[in-house]
Amino acid sequence: MAPTGVSPAPLRPRARSPPTASACSPRLCRRRPPTCLVAQCDALIDALNRRKAQLLARVNKEHEHKLKVVRDQISHCTVKLRQTTGLMEYCLEVIKENDPSGFLQISDALIRRVHLTEDQWGKGTLTPRMTTDFDLSLDNSPLLQSIHQLDFVQMKASSPVPATPILQLEECCTHNNSATLSWKQPPLSTVPAEGYILELDDGNGGQFREVYVGKETMCTVDGLHFNSTYNARVKAFNKTGVSQYSKTLVLQTSEGKALQQYPSERELRGV
């Protein structure tokens, strides 16, 4: 209980996050083994399907890129083919010219144009710009090895560990730089606890440390920092093991040390 005349600082219970489907707790597995196993297998399948979708998307992207390069080269070759066909038709018309002097006037220019066209065709126009092979491969041997090494462990009966203690908020309080915490076992608990472990952080959001180990269900922690926020939690243990942690409590110490009131000289004289 809080000391007389001093109001305890407000306590704010912090609820633990519920277990998610991706991280199934052992307690949940013991309650619903089939559902838990199916959820774990579905999670593996979903992860594999996501990787499959990423792989197919990459293959499709590479395929579209190759098609674009091939289409561009086809268009370029089509233009060159049309130009060459036009040149050939022009040459045939020139050959039909009956005037020798006119033929001699255009023959040199025509020969240069034919050689230029031939050189352009020989500068990689007919060389494929894109190979048919994909620059990627799938190495599934590590995944298959992991799947073959997957162990199926038979579920055991629930271990007789103590139930999670319950912090009694109405009896927990702070006074100056001290904190008093009280807890109890759940009313329907059938497994006795041999002791409890009370943990407190450093008042700055750091790691928890053990401040009490014993059979008592109430503990007062002295020597805390003034104007600091501490997180506290407790768990029970027996020969089999330890229970889950209780809900975390946030404790706020006083802003400063209370000054002791000394009697004045007049009061000492009884005046």
Query: How many DSSP H or I helices?
Result: 5
What count of domains describes the coordinates? 2
Shape verdict: rod-shaped
**Which residues form runs of ≥5 with pLDDT under 50?**
1-31, 258-262, 264-271
What sequence of helices (H) and strands (E) makes up the elements?
EHHHHEEEEEEEEH
Helix content estimate: 25-40%
**Distance separating the two termini:** 37 Å
Strand order of the largest sheet: 1-9-8-5-6
Secondary structure class reads alpha+beta
* Strand count: 9
Integer-rounded radius of gyration: 43 Å
> How confident overall, as mean pLDDT?
78
Strand content: 15-25%
Largest sheet: 5 strands, antiparallel
Domain COS: 95-153
Keywords: Coiled coil
Protein name: Tripartite motif containing 9
Pfam families: fn3 (PF00041)
Give me some keywords for this one:
271 residues; alpha+beta; Immunoglobulin-like; 2 domains; 4-stranded antiparallel sheet
How are the SSEs ordered, and which strands pair?
Elements: E1 12-14, H1 26-31, H2 33-95, H3 100-122, H4 141-148, E2 166-167, E3 173-175, E4 178-184, E5 195-200, E6 209-214, E7 218-221, E8 229-237, E9 248-252, H5 265-268
Antiparallel strand pairs: 1-9, 2-4, 3-4, 4-7, 5-6, 5-8, 8-9
Helix pairs in contact: 2-3
Biased composition (Low complexity): 17-26
Domain COS: 95-153
Domain Fibronectin type-III: 161-256
